[in-house]
Specification:
HAD-like_sf, binds magnesium ion, hydrolase, Nucleotidase_putative, 2 domains, EC 3.1.3.-, Nucleotidase, single chain, 12% strand
């Protein structure tokens, strides 16, 4: 079968990693409880920053956010390795911009994600992901972002939200831990 995955906040814990960097950089000590209640994908509100200030800080830390030691979510690497061993096809579809495509792929490889270079798509808007996903004929796709998930409802594939505080309003199947993926496959898409 063909499995498609978003990367940031689906396979790797990017926002939370950035949240810790923000605390360090701003010399604040905002608790993780605040983070876990955020209803926005952006994290600047938790630090009392405007959208503009938030964007500025995010961009100034981008190198560190993307390429230092952001952890994969628990069991993400092992689960994808197992899919690979079982002979499934794994696709990555990220909205990270073109300039970061190659490096992101290398970073994922360095973190033991199973990667085939021609199965890696990047440099698209959220609204363009749907076209890539449709063209690939995926059986399953996983993403965290409402703006993406909302575009996929008419496609004939199993779409799952990676559960987060900012996508719980969506009434679609969700995956909380990557350990659940095996059950999802066995159940033919139901959990
Ligand atoms: Mg994402």
């Amino acid at each position: 079968m063909k499995f498609g995955f978003d990367i940031d906040d689906t396979l790797i814990n990017l926002r939370e990693y950035a949240f810790h960097l923000y605390n360090k950089k701003l010399k604040q000590d905002v608790s993780l409880d605040v983070f876990n209640e955020l209803k926005t994908l952006e994290i600047h509100e938790a630090f009392g920053l405007s959208k503009e200030e938030g964007n500025k800080l995010w961009n100034s830390l981008l190198e560190e956010i993307y390429y230092s030691s952001c952890p994969p979510f628990p069991h993400a690497v092992e689960t994808l390795q197992e899919l690979d061993r079982q002979g499934h096809e794994i696709y990555y579809i990220t909205a990270r911009v073109k300039e970061h495509g190659e490096r992101t792929m290398k970073w994922l490889k360095g973190n033991d994600f199973p990667i085939q270079e021609d199965h890696f798509y990047y440099g698209m808007d959220d609204t363009e992901k749907v076209h890539v996903i449709e063209k690939l004929g995926l059986d399953y796709y996983f993403d965290d972002k409402p703006a993406v998930l909302e575009t996929l409802s008419n496609l004939k594939l199993q779409v799952f939200a990676k559960d987060t505080s900012y996508n719980r309003h969506l009434k679609i199947p969700r995956i909380t831990s990557w350990l659940e993926l095996n059950q999802i496959i066995k159940g033919g898409g139901r959990i």
